[in-house]
Design brief:
Blueprint lengths: L2 E6 L2 E2 L2 E2 L1 H14 L3 E8 L7 H6 L4 E5 L9 H15 L3 E5 L2 H14 L3 E5 L1 E4 L5 E7 L4 E5 L6 E5 L16 E4 L29 E5 L10 H10 L2 E4 L1 H5 L20 E5 L5 H7 L4 E6 L6 H4 L2 E4 L2 H15 L3
Parallel strand pairs: 1-4, 1-6, 4-5, 5-12, 6-11, 7-11, 13-14, 13-15, 15-16, 16-17
Antiparallel strand pairs: 2-3, 8-9, 9-10
Helix pairs in contact: 3-4, 5-9
Length: 326
């Protein structure tokens, strides 16, 4: 094979994140049949997940294990990743467009003196063999296609936009352990306390139920949480709801919050300000619930329900409960 593309896999709670599989698929599409796809796993116990990456399309898996990598530490992770890149000499490095990917990718691009295309939502190879990367611009109002003019490529891939390859349980990959370079760390991570423990990650959720100022209070999110529980989804919020103190800013979706691309997005009591739309307009199906029939959210919704969310959402919850009964 003439080229090697490297995928930076991410884990959470000892398991691979969904975006890791999607990024392997993205690298496969971008490289074509003459490209080997390798993956890198960083962290204690990382090598135990190598076979899973192989089943989803990785030809080779690099691992770096050290206590410094137990939690995300920018200096430690960058040093470990740089050691892998020096060993593998890849033609392209793919990251998920996650907090970690958005932190490491530009550092690596600067270190390698190369360009980066971020927040990629689709990849295609045109008739001339050039690989084109599609990404949203102007707060999601338009899309642009970009291509690299030189190697190595640095790419971040938005979660929930690239379909992972079907796993093949018989597939295996070569593994190679890379020595941790043990850099001088200016910050040491002792522990990480998550306030979303046990909940679905918004950026990877297939269903998102979001509330705006229309929920009127913190208790107003309860009907949304009940609907999310029935659908196996996550609860989000507009900045207006966060600013009003109805929920934690960790739930904020929009230009200054998280970007989500679920299969189903239900906006309850959200007017549709452009800052919020920027974070959810790429959702596959959008349902808007609002008492104001002139609310801007209806302009981008696939289905609109004009009504009080405190009447509509419980009805939807009951209907979904009945429909989803085994």
């Amino acid at each position: 094979m003439s080229k090697t593309f490297l995928v930076v896999a991410e884990t959470r709670g000892g398991s691979l994140r969904q975006v890791s599989y999607e990024t392997i698929s993205a690298a496969r599409t971008a490289g074509g049949t003459d490209t080997a796809v390798a993956a890198v796993l960083l962290g204690a116990g990382a090598s135990a997940l190598a076979n899973e990456l192989a089943q989803y399309g990785a030809d080779r898996v690099y691992t770096v294990e050290h206590a410094d990598l137990e939690h995300y530490n920018p200096q430690a992770y960058f040093a470990a990743l740089h050691a892998v890149v020096q060993s593998a000499q890849p033609d392209a490095i793919f990251f998920g467009h996650t907090a970690i990917g958005k932190d490491l990718a530009p550092q690596l691009a600067a270190e390698l003196g190369t360009g980066q295309i971020s927040d990629v939502t689709a990849i295609e190879v045109d008739g001339s063999g050039e690989t084109l990367f599609t990404r949203p611009i102007y707060a999601g109002k338009a899309l642009e296609k970009k291509a690299f003019t030189a190697f190595p490529w640095i790419v971040t891939v938005r979660p929930n936009n690239i379909t992972p390859l079907a796993p093949n349980a018989t597939r295996t990959a070569d593994t190679e352990a890379i020595a941790y370079p043990e850099p001088t760390l200016h910050t040491i991570i002792r522990d990480v306390v998550r306030n979303t423990s046990g909940k679905i990650d918004l950026s990877e959720a297939k269903v998102v139920i979001s509330g705006g100022r229309g929920v009127r209070s913190a208790d107003g999110f309860k009907p949304l949480e009940e609907l999310a529980a029935v659908l196996g989804g996550a609860v989000g919020a507009s900045r207006g709801a966060c600013d009003a103190g109805y929920c934690d800013y960790a739930l904020q979706i929009g230009q200054t919050g998280k970007v989500v691309t679920p299969e189903l997005y239900i906006a309850a009591g959200i007017s549709g300000a452009i800052q919020h739309v920027a974070g959810m307009s790429s959702s596959r199906v959008i349902i808007a619930i609002n008492k104001d029939p002139e609310a801007p959210i209806f302009k981008i919704a696939d289905y609109g329900i004009v009504g009080d969310l405190f009447e509509v959402v419980p009805l939807l919850t009951e209907q979904f409960k009945q429909a989803l009964q085994p």
